Amino acid sequence: MGAQFDRTGSSRMFATGIPLTYKTIVRQVAAKARSVKCWVGSHGDLDEGQDFIIHTDAGTPEQAIEDVEKIVFDGGGDPDEHHLDAIEALLNLVPWTADPTRARGAMLVFMSSDTKPAKSGVTAAELGRRIKDKGILLYLVCERTATLNELATAAEGLVFQISDSPDPLELQRIAAKLAESIQVSITKGSTVPLTV
């Protein structure tokens, strides 16, 4: 399971909700899956020299949760961020399995604001198709924008509204559905998440 976090100052208003949401989802998935390896990355504003950082590399769910809780949300220049670059970096970093009957890759991305165009030139739709073609389930926790919706649509992923105070019952419901979606997709070899 790969996760990517926008660590810029624009995410500071969600500094409580982001780790809580991640922890709830990861623990639900870990409770249902035979085993879970986690990768956690964060990104800042590349125009300000704030590069992609890997916090957890094939770690346990609890290590990933601890690492996410240590992320400091600060910096950045203008409101739009380099989300597509960060998602592409995570896609290229994690050794995703090619056999969906053996393991299922899932990517959780937490973002505020809209995205700038990727420096590589990849569009949101192209990146979404690459994610889908690798059989990765994509879940975006973000402020809805046209570009991020385009990414999710191309990947056949799901989008959830980011919040600093997510309703605990709603969060449990979503986390349970995500865990079920991942589990069912492994069993059936599907590359499309269940709807929540």
Number of domains: 1
Choose one word for the global shape: globular
Strand order of the largest sheet: 3-2-1-4-5-6
Distance between the termini: 19 Å
Structural class by sheet pairing and helices? alpha/beta
- Biggest pleated-sheet summary: 6 strands, mixed
The second-level CATH architecture is 3-Layer(aba) Sandwich
Mean model confidence by pLDDT = 88
State the helical fraction: 25-40%
* Number of H/I helices: 6
H and E string: EHEEHHEHEHEH
Which stretches of 5+ consecutive residues score pLDDT under 50? none
Q: What's the Cα radius of gyration? A: 15 Å
Describe what this molecule looks like in 3D.
- The structure is a single chain.
- By secondary structure, this protein is of the alpha/beta class.
- The chain has a single domain, classed as Rossmann fold, CATH 3.40.50.
- It is 39% helix and 17% strand.
- It contains 6 helices and 6 strands; from the N terminus they run βαββααβαβαβα.
- A 6-stranded mixed β-sheet has the order 3-2-1-4-5-6.
- The longest helix is centred in the last third of the chain and has 21 residues, at 168-188.
- The chain is globular and about 40 Å long.
- The protein starts with a strand and ends in an 8-residue tail after the last helix.
- The model has no long low-confidence stretch (mean pLDDT 88).
Keywords:
alpha/beta; 196 residues; 6 strands; single chain; Rossmann fold; globular
Short description:
With 196 residues, this protein is of the alpha/beta class. The chain contains six helices and six strands; from the N terminus they run βαββααβαβαβα. It has helices at 17-32, 61-69, 83-93, 124-133, 146-155, 168-188; strands at 2-6, 38-43, 53-59, 106-110, 137-142, 158-161.
